[in-house]
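Thought: the user asked what HTH deoR-type domain-containing protein looks like in 3D. I have the sequence; next I should run the structure tool and report back without guessing.
Action: structure_tool
Action Input:
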Amino acid sequence: MKLERMLAIVILLLQRSKVRGKDLAEMFEVSLRTIYRDIESIHAAGIPITTSSGVGGGIGIMEQYKLNAGLFTTHDMIAILNGLGIMQSTFSGKEVSHALVKLKSIVPEEEFQAMNVKKNQMMVDFTSWIGADDSDNVINSIKIALEKMYTVTFSYYNRQGTEQLEGVEPQRMVFKASHWYVQAYLPQTQNYRLFKLRKMYSVTIEDTPFNHRPLPHPFSEFTNQMRAKTFSIQLLIKASALNRMLDYCTMNNITYLGEERYQVSLPFIDDDYGYGILMSFGDSLRCLEPEHVRLELIQRMNKATQQYTDTQKKL
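Observation:
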């Protein structure tokens, strides 16, 4: 921690003429005394530190010692900072924050404000809209296992129920379509699997190290399977359902018919998930074609209604 902070201070001082000790203390969330001890250690390591008091004073490095910082353009730095900002929104811990401080310090002072405006034009937030969950704990456990390259054991819920997995080698974390996944290798079955992070629990890091393996694309086989199953269905929706429908398609799939009605050409997969989406629209949606989808939807809605009818009879 101290070494990382000292490195960040050196990089900062290489780019700024002077920095006040108080500003460094606030930036790194430590006491002013800690900053002065760091400065003494940096000076003892052979880096010529200068200090001055009064207006415009502060801590600096001799100009003759400074390096050319033209390695990255401002656009390069914005791209890197945006990437780190996405990582910071996912992972707790201070390593990303430290990296952000180091990289920000490389940008010349006169360009810093403009760069900050550009960086803040994009924001990524992976947190849930409703309620909190245990995802952060699982992410941090997998992250530690990845860094140390240790196997993990965990419980996993799937359609068949709960399974217990041991000796799993987490090789990569993947984010796709609003969900985090862990791509892992299972030595017992000698194959790769993709685990949805929200279905993982009781994650424990084992003491067994593993080696990195060449990874196949995490979704290529699944994507090909889904594409083969996908076909277009025609829907009629009310204007009140348009906003929600845009979560599943774009305006290019939608035609306004007048009288607050829209026709939708929706990519669809004939499974529980697909019908669950259609049923969630209630009476704001009607399936026009194909006929077998419309009939299946009617049958499923009748079964759902029957659940409440049977319950009323028992009461």
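Thought: the tool returned a structure. Summarizing for the user.
Final Answer: Structure for HTH deoR-type domain-containing protein predicted. The first strand starts at residue 49 and ends at 52. The CA atoms of residues 185 and 191 lie 6 Å apart.
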